[in-house]
Amino acid sequence: MNKIKHSVVLGGLLALACGSALADQAVADAAKAMANNAGCFTCHSIQHKDNTGGKLPIGPAWEDVAAQYKGKPGAADFLTRIVLEGSNPYSSHWKNKAAGIAMPPNAVVVSENQARQIVYWILSLK
């Protein structure tokens, strides 16, 4: 009887874990689709690519963004504002890592809620 109880509990925990993983994947897929529909992949990629042939990407890879802002207080709010309003062309912190000097404002293609969802997904990248 005790083995059956443990099996049921273990099965429930596995189902919760799988359900959580599926939910996380659904959120990631939705954010990726929003980013794609907004044209973000024109300048950004998800994964870091080494600079080959002297060509820098237009915008930083989102894995690099996630690494730079990992654990920083207010990062999600700051990046959401950058997505919506654009970045300052005179103070790029991606110098020598990305060719673009500034990110244009995107408030015309994404809402604040959508921008925040995309940013949370980017910050979740490893």
Secondary-structure map:
Layout (H helix, E strand, L loop, with lengths): L1 H36 L24 H8 L5 H11 L26 H13 L2
Describe the structure.
The chain starts with a helix and ends with a helix. It has helices at residues 2-37, 62-69, 75-85, 112-124. 54% of the residues lie in helices and 0% in strands. It has 4 helices and no strands. It is mainly α and 126 residues long.
Helix content: 40-55%
Kindly provide the radius of gyration, computed on alpha-carbon positions and rounded to a whole number of angstroms.
Answer: 19 Å
Total strands: the figure is: 0
Quickly give the structural class. mainly alpha
Report the portion of residues in β strands: under 5%
Euclidean distance between termini CA atoms:
43 Å
Q: How would you sum up the major sheet?
A: none
Average residue pLDDT? 83
Helical stretch count? 4
Order of helices and strands: HHHH
Low-pLDDT stretches: 6-18
Based on CA inertia axes, which overall geometry fits? globular
